[in-house]
């Protein structure tokens, strides 16, 4: 048993604390006491069911956030359609009155998108902070009831990591995360609708890159999950080391263990750096991949759409609308 706070990260007893090469292997085995099986699946429906009751007291705000999200999606996804309509129907015919109507509609849609986004963000901010307050309060109450044996087996720094970092992640998942997913699906559905409505053949050409994106994301996700889990475990170990060294600094100094504890902290800090760099590298591969697919889809739209414009079977406004929708599709 350590002399302070439970655990052994830099205290008098250090038989369980990973150092040197063993620190890295401990991370691979789950340095914060969780292995991959315990961390669970990428998506666990039972966990979501347990978390959703935290949103029940704010049903009204959730409804407002959904309304704002739908308004923003509808307004922003309708704009390319109107731009294409203005080019093909009014600009090429010199119909100034029609252009004024479309211009006014675009301004109205921009205002609607702004109002929808404002309503969504204000509602999610209110919900998010209240959910965070509830989660942390309940977590703190639960910690007060834990046994001394639990606190001895688990470093206080890692418990603090759960209360601070993981609770914040749960709050973001329940508020911003869920609504973002809904907004993405709503926007994606509207984009697909407009693409098919404008021209089925061009829509199918645009969808050619989608299977490539699905395969690439599935390949990336299988590696990213393990990297992000390792990063979470690494920061938990750093938090444990920091907390217990600071709270036990008197014992450390009385035993002249400063150099040893500095060496240990350097090791866990280096492991944390390595884990986050690896996660960052994987993250850095996503956006360039998406941009490449956007460029590919845009090129297909320009080439095939341009050929159809030349033979008179498609309006240039439709091609421009498709190019704009490609930016939103991904």
UniProtKB/TrEMBL annotation:
<feature type="transmembrane region" description="Helical">
    <location>
        <begin position="173"/>
        <end position="196"/>
    </location>
</feature>
<keyword id="KW-0472">Membrane</keyword>
<keyword id="KW-1133">Transmembrane helix</keyword>
<feature type="transmembrane region" description="Helical">
    <location>
        <begin position="99"/>
        <end position="119"/>
    </location>
</feature>
<dbReference type="InterPro" id="IPR039421">
    <property type="entry name" value="Type_1_exporter"/>
</dbReference>
<protein>
    <recommendedName>
        <fullName>ABC transmembrane type-1 domain-containing protein</fullName>
    </recommendedName>
</protein>
<dbReference type="Pfam" id="PF00664">
    <property type="entry name" value="ABC_membrane"/>
</dbReference>
<dbReference type="InterPro" id="IPR011527">
    <property type="entry name" value="ABC1_TM_dom"/>
</dbReference>
<feature type="transmembrane region" description="Helical">
    <location>
        <begin position="62"/>
        <end position="87"/>
    </location>
</feature>
<feature type="transmembrane region" description="Helical">
    <location>
        <begin position="202"/>
        <end position="220"/>
    </location>
</feature>
<dbReference type="GO" id="GO:0005524">
    <property type="term" value="F:ATP binding"/>
</dbReference>
<feature type="transmembrane region" description="Helical">
    <location>
        <begin position="282"/>
        <end position="303"/>
    </location>
</feature>
<feature type="transmembrane region" description="Helical">
    <location>
        <begin position="309"/>
        <end position="326"/>
    </location>
</feature>
<dbReference type="GO" id="GO:0016020">
    <property type="term" value="C:membrane"/>
</dbReference>
<keyword id="KW-0812">Transmembrane</keyword>
<dbReference type="InterPro" id="IPR036640">
    <property type="entry name" value="ABC1_TM_sf"/>
</dbReference>
<feature type="domain" description="ABC transmembrane type-1">
    <location>
        <begin position="63"/>
        <end position="330"/>
    </location>
</feature>
<dbReference type="GO" id="GO:0015421">
    <property type="term" value="F:ABC-type oligopeptide transporter activity"/>
</dbReference>
